Amino acid sequence: MGNCLFSSTRVDSTQSPQPTSASGGSRISSKTSRSSAPSSLTLPSFSDTSSSNGCLPTPRTEGEILASPNLKPFSFNELKNATRNFRPDSLLGEGGFGYVFKGWIDEHTLAAARPGSGMVIAVKKLKPEGFQGHKEWLTEVDYLGQLHHPNLVKLIGYCSEGENRLLVYEFMPKGSLENHLFRRGPQPLSWAVRLKVAIGSARGLSFLHDLKSQVIYRDFKASNILLDAEFNAKLSDFGLAKAGPTGDRTHVSTQVMGTQGYAAPEYVATGRLTAKSDVYSFGVVLLELLSGQRAVDKTKVGVERSLVDWAKPYLGDKRKLFRIMDTKLGGQYPQKGAFTAATLALQCLNSEAKLRPRMSEVLAALEQLEAPKTASKHSQAEQHAVPLPVRRSPMRHHRSPMHLTPSASPLPSHRQSPRVH
Fold first, then answer.
1. Pairwise CA distance, residues 333 & 346, whole Å
2. Both 313 and 209 in a single domain?
3. Catalytic (active site) residue 248
4. 320 a known binding residue?
5. How many CB atoms lie within 10 A of CB 342?
6. Per the database record, which ranges form the Protein kinase domain (predicted)?
7. Do both 202 and 297 map to the same domain?
8. Which of 12, 142, 219, 297 is catalytic?
9. In the 8-state DSSP scheme, what is residue 364?
10. 241 in a structural domain
């Protein structure tokens, strides 16, 4: 599980927003080269088995990355057949990366299968937009071709043929967390499911951070959290993932990439990236789970535009917490548990990165919240409903979904938040 080689790539800065990724913000990065992708790239990697401390860099060429024994190299024709020639009625979503189509393959041979038979897959097709897109595509192949965990989406294979760059994933039938929290139509998520999603995504991040050769995810947000049929959460889209600091280094210096509203303030300001940057992003998503509000709402002005700025004053006050709780919960949540989760979110959002908890500590705290339910399904103390307050939030009401480009994640159709470019 952790004994893998993996790499870092993507670097960029300046802050010209460009819609490229998921729910409520703009993607941050710098200018993107439009030149065609080179035939060979070398990405700095780190091997858990290359030394006693697992910190020696092991450069991996593009050829070495694509030779992963864990991935199937598909031909473009195979994926055309699997998706019925990328027909519009096979389209699941669209984003800055490109388009995502539903397809079918034989679960044993992985050959294209008739619609409705075999294994369902999601095929992400890259827009031919040059070198930077190719680098992100290759980074995703590099990481997901080697890292395997129940809370990371499974990459089945890829296609690199001519100008075509595609990725083939397991299909996630429940779509993204963003869909369930912010789009009208889906049944509102219960408190138990929200807690389950928080725990699953925390496990995924904790796994990445605790590897000998640490991985910083760098784009943790609601649209990148995919849900299987049982609402198990899996992290997707590793195009911005980066190897963590090694030796006595405290951070990785890189151009700023991520999504407005989710990216940690010190990282946006300085380009200094640490695992605590991911912890901040987790705090934002935990706040979204509690409130049912987007990280950034461009239809609002002032303090209400930013979920963090608006909600922070209420998170540490038991008597005022109800003001930020999602009204779609109908008051059906444990008051004590909600306050504990809110306190945890506040710790993750600490403006001082060093004072934020580690993801393993966040995970342990969330599992403690779930533990009483597991031990005693009929525990009235944990399961009792909180009366729905008549008073509404003094400032913020339910926001309508933002008009953003639909996402290109391996899942049923959903919308995306712009990344910071």
1. 19
2. yes
3. no
4. no
5. 23
6. 86-369
7. yes
8. 219
9. H
10. yes
